[in-house]
Design a protein that fits this description.
Strand content: under 5%
Helix content: over 70%
Oligomer: single chain
Order of helices and strands: HHHHHHHHHHHH
Radius of gyration: 21 Å
Largest sheet: none
């Protein structure tokens, strides 16, 4: 199952990553109460749906027939994810640990932080053990996504057709219905249900919807469309994303959340089917770093938020937010460059050993 890089997907990843970053500028709102993208928490649903889509892509590449002894394929899938996250996760966790240590006054408190932080370092913060001691607050998404993948990947791996066409639409509807009846919004992350947090249940719903989006996009790919229809798809796709950005600019914990999820599903299905005429405007020349940069930006915002709250500059919301975005981008670029250099050096050392 060949698949070319979807650069438009990387572009929108970067956009919604900045939406989430600006949503967290709420910490600097001050007395005015105003902050950008008050409904920006719903940006997580974009990443959840895309993760669910990519989970099916990965599972189909490693079908049971093609991969003898694949009982451990779920472990391999999760391990590949962890390895891709780990350098950024560990570096940013270390920086955040140092920031927390600077406020500690006793050896006992230091060792308590050190021990409790190990759960977060191991991506297990959302397992119910040690969530309050997670060094990367926004890292709840990564932890929940890995836990959700442990549940969903085996189901998809052994029967992707049943998974995408029956299991996914049913479970996404049931879980979204639960959130609608219980809260009227998708903003909940920290409610404990006895076996999992609401954030993990939310990611299961998002990723299940991503499986449905995969099935729809595959059907669209097999159809033939005229130039007019492709242009129409481009209008629908981009208008949908722009509409979401407009809604979340003004709404806070709104009942529009479930409409937004539906718009996401339509737009991502069109985006992943790559039938839209707009796809030719996206290419690797200006988006080749977007995919990896969005992950580092997402994680690094926790560090810059902690630093600015610690400094308490008192320069107002707009200046603080501008500094917050600048520092997040600068830190992300620095970490990305450092990790890339380390990887290149490691590759060179391995090549020298092989020679």
């Amino acid at each position: 199952m060949g698949m070319t890089r979807n650069w438009a997907l990387d572009f929108w990843k970067l956009v919604f990553c900045f939406v989430i970053i600006l949503y967290h500028s709420v910490y600097f709102k001050g007395e005015s109460g105003f902050s950008l993208f008050r409904g920006g928490y719903i940006g997580v649903e974009f990443f959840g749906i895309v993760s669910g889509y990519l989970l099916v892509v990965a599972a189909q590449k490693k079908s049971f027939c093609q991969c003898p002894g694949s009982k451990s394929e779920t472990f391999r899938f999760i391990w590949r994810k962890i390895v891709s996250f780990a350098p950024y996760w560990l570096l940013i966790s270390f920086i955040n640990f140092c920031l927390k240590v600077s406020d500690i006054r006793t050896i006992k408190a230091f060792f308590k932080l050190l021990v409790s932080s190990t759960w977060g370092l191991a991506f297990l913060g959302m397992s119910g053990i040690g969530k309050e001691s997670m060094l990367i607050g926004v890292g709840w998404y990564i932890s929940s996504m890995l836990l959700a993948s442990l549940i969903l990947y085996p189901l998809c791996f052994y029967n992707s057709k049943v998974y995408t066409e029956i299991f996914c639409p049913l479970f996404s509807l049931l879980i979204f219905g639960f959130f609608s009846q219980s809260y009227g919004t998708l903003s909940r992350v920290s409610q404990w249900y006895g076996i999992m947090y609401s954030g993990t249940l939310r990611l299961i719903a998002d990723m299940a919807l991503g499986g449905t989006v995969f099935a729809i996009s595959e059907k669209i790919k097999r159809m033939q469309f005229t130039k007019f229809e492709k242009r129409l798809f481009a209008i629908i796709e981009n208008t949908g994303f722009i509409l979401i950005l407009w809604i979340i600019s003004f709404k806070w914990e709104s009942t529009y959340d479930f409409l937004i999820v539906l718009i996401y599903a339509v737009c991502i299905a069109l985006l992943c089917s790559q039938v839209s005429s707009v796809n030719r405007f996206f290419n690797e020349k200006w988006l080749k770093y977007a995919g990896s940069l969005s992950l580092v930006l997402y994680l690094a915002q926790s560090t810059t938020t902690n630093i600015l709250l610690k400094w308490n500059l008192g320069i107002g919301y707009w200046k603080t937010t501008a500094l917050y975005v600048f520092m997040t981008v600068l830190l992300s670029q620095t970490i990305l460059s450092l990790v890339n250099r380390m990887r290149k050096k490691l590759c060179c050392q391995m090549q020298e050993k092989n020679e």
